[in-house]
From TrEMBL:
PANTHER family: TRANS-ACONITATE 2-METHYLTRANSFERASE, TRANS-ACONITATE 2-METHYLTRANSFERASE-RELATED. Transmembrane segments: none annotated. This is Class I SAM-dependent methyltransferase. InterPro entries: Methyltransf_25, SAM-dependent_MTases_sf. Residues 52-145 form the Methyltransferase domain. The keyword Phosphoprotein does not apply. The lineage of its organism: Bacteria, Pseudomonadati, Pseudomonadota, Gammaproteobacteria, Alteromonadales.
Length: 264
């Protein structure tokens, strides 16, 4: 199976559903609400910097970084998502570039280098080869530039019956999308598990120097079965929700972040 064609078809369809969902809250975003979450807002400073967002979906986080002062470019496999991102940028009159491309072809489609390369929540599971991914990150960074990612913790996958450890063959699932307005339609998707050791080693092999690694006992999204909800005050002084999972009365790690620098 051609994983790019399979996943592009699924995400083209999902985008049309996601744009109208409460989960993504495009209406609130258009009124000024940021789609960024407390972890990345606390850990990443983008003001005055150029930022490349890998696998940006339909651009809410990319445009939120633009609101934080970054000069942004977003790439995504889904042409439907990129078209929606371009429409949002035009509507908001925000300077942003959005390019439809597979992650591995990014250096050819986006030849300039950036101060920051960013990726987040649920992105790397769609990629079969993290060494190629990490080399793309390195190729797209300026010397001294920063890579930052925040992701769902792969340990949670064990509770859903998936492997924690890397495997060559993909998991092939026929599943509906995750937003509350899902109409029940399913699509075939192909994904791969990536343990944290694989992520870190791939980045280091690509010449990046690890500067920070953090794990968190919550998810900013109600994205998994069995999560409990708690309310907290976010960095903007607003109330927001965290979601946590317990196993034998102990919290399970649900997210992690990595910061690395491209050595000169």
């Amino acid at each position: 199976m051609d994983y790019l064609a399979v996943n592009k078809a699924a995400w083209d369809k999902r985008t049309k559903i996601h744009v109208g969902s409460k989960f993504y809250d495009v209406e609130g975003f258009l009124k000024g609400k940021s789609s960024l979450q407390e972890i990345e807002l606390r850990e990443l400073n983008v003001k005055g910097k150029s930022l490349l967002h890998l696998q940006c979906h339909f651009g809410l986080d990319t445009l939120s970084w633009a609101r934080e002062g970054a000069d942004v470019t977003g790439i995504d496999l889904s042409s439907t998502a990129i078209e929606q991102a371009q429409e949002l940028a035009k509507h908001l009159e925000v300077e942003a570039k959005f390019i439809c491309t597979d992650v591995y072809n990014t250096p050819e489609r986006v030849p300039n280098q950036f101060d920051i390369v960013f990726t987040s929540y649920g992105a790397i599971a769609w990629l079969p080869d993290l060494d190629r991914w990490a080399q793309v990150v390195s190729d797209c960074l300026k010397a001294g530039g920063q890579f930052y990612m925040v992701e769902f913790h792969p340990l949670e996958a064990l509770f859903d019956g998936y492997s924690y450890f890397a495997q060559q063959e993909p998991d092939v699932d026929d599943e509906a999308t995750y937003t509350e307005n899902c109409n029940g339609e399913t699509n075939t998707v192909m994904s791969w598990p990536h343990p944290i050791s694989e992520v870190l080693n791939a980045l280091m092999r690509a010449g990046l120097e690890l500067k920070g690694y953090n794990e968190f006992d919550f998810s900013p999204y109600d994205a998994f079965a069995g999560l409990q909800e708690e309310s907290v005050t976010n960095p903007a002084g607003e109330q927001s929700c965290r979601y946590f999972l317990e196993h034998k009365q102990q919290r399970v790690p649900l997210t992690y972040s990595v910061s690395a620098i491209k050595r000169a």
